[in-house]
Amino acid sequence: MGFNVTYLLAFIFILLPQSPSLDSTSPKERQAAIEQMATIGNHDAIPKLADALKKEPKAEIRAEIVAAFGRIRDRDAIPVLADTLRNDLDKDVRSQAIDSLLRLYILIDDTGPMRTIFNRVKSVLIEPNPPVVGPEVEVDSSAKEALAVVMQKDFSDEVRVEAVRALGSLRAKDQIQAMIAALQDPQNREHRTVRVEIVHTLGILRDPAAGAALAETLRDPDRQIVSEAVLAVGLVGNTAARPQLEEIFRTNPNSMVKARALESLALLRDPASTPLFESLLGDKDDYYRELSAEGLARLKYEGAKNWRQRFEQEKKPNVRNALAYGLAAAGDLDYINNLANALNSRQQNQVEVYLFELGKFDGQLNELYRYLRSMDPKVRAGIARIIGNIGDPASAPQIRELTEDSNTDVVREAVAALRKLSR
């Protein structure tokens, strides 16, 4: 009787569904085990997954394990991800490790089945123009150092480019000298895509420490690198390069490079560019008119007070916005209304820059508050985002009211702004 009971229990145990194991001989079971463990905050899974990663022969499943660290979102996984970046032989696994490092700091929607680069899924974090961490986020130096090593030493230019891009996403200003060294290293001359991305990222970081290196790059034989450097020089505020930029604008045959040179000059805030901007206010090219008005507005151009008629006669909305910016910067605050209303237009990105600068640098933050009560939810959301980016903690009470707004986009922007204001 005892034998029969024992036999029956053993038979039932065999029939019961077993939990998938990381040690299974079946790749599908190992994948299922990884999926089960990949839940946010599951700290206990990190050492188990790290051990499995060392033993896993299939690159696709190693990528699944690496992706799991990104979904768990625990910074204790940084050493494992750094080791993967250094030692995994598959470039797609290394790319996945960059993606997972970024997910530790940048919140993005990550629901549904886990997907990896091996599934041909493009990651918004390592594609061009990725999101950037908020100023309130503190990034571990070990994560930035691991990416800097990949930027300099990886065998794949694709992975190196992704690492540079990631350094920009993490606002890694402490790695600027490493980027400059890689940019100037003669051995990297043949790795043009890496150098282009470094120049682009140095511009994004907007640190004057990169100014001299970027100015030197204006003479690079590679046209694409020069094109990136032209704008980056303005973004970092290297006024010493103004004569070079003006010469490029006047003589370069490429229309895109000319436009970038003028955009860069408009960013520099160098009074010596005033005559050039004045000469272009009536140009037939509307982008030149826009940038010249923008450049003069940043210089607190006295003549901007007389732009009312020019504003009324202008037909192009991008130029009208730049003229409104100049009028507002010159003290005619009624034109802030034009800019705020344009947050619900195709020129949203343009006017966000102008409103940010008026609030951050021109002392008009109090003027922005009244648009938090606009009837247009896109205006309320845009102003909340701008005030959050300006970063004055005294703005928090003004924003807090919008956390109960009837529009979900407004609530989301208000919550994000409060997070930045409370850092």
For this entry, give a set of tags:
423 residues, mainly alpha, Leucine-rich Repeat Variant, 4 domains, globular
- According to DSSP, the number of beta strands is 0
Structural class: mainly alpha
- CATH 4th-level superfamily of the largest domain: Leucine-rich Repeat Variant
What is the count of helical runs? Answer: 24
Named CATH architecture of the largest domain: Alpha Horseshoe
Helix content estimate: 55-70%
CATH class of the largest domain: Mainly Alpha
Main sheet overview:
none
Count of discrete domains:
4
Q: Give the amount of beta strand, in percent.
A: under 5%
Question: Kindly, what is the distance between the CA atoms of the first and last residues, rounded to a whole number of angstroms?
Answer: 70 Å
Q: Mean of the pLDDT scores?
A: 92
Q: What fold name goes in the CATH topology slot of the largest domain?
A: Leucine-rich Repeat Variant
What's the quaternary structure here? single chain
Overall 3D shape: globular
Please provide the ordered H/E string of secondary-structure elements.
Answer: HHHHHHHHHHHHHHHHHHHHHHHH
Radius of gyration: 27 Å
Unreliable stretches, pLDDT < 50, 5 or more residues?
12-16
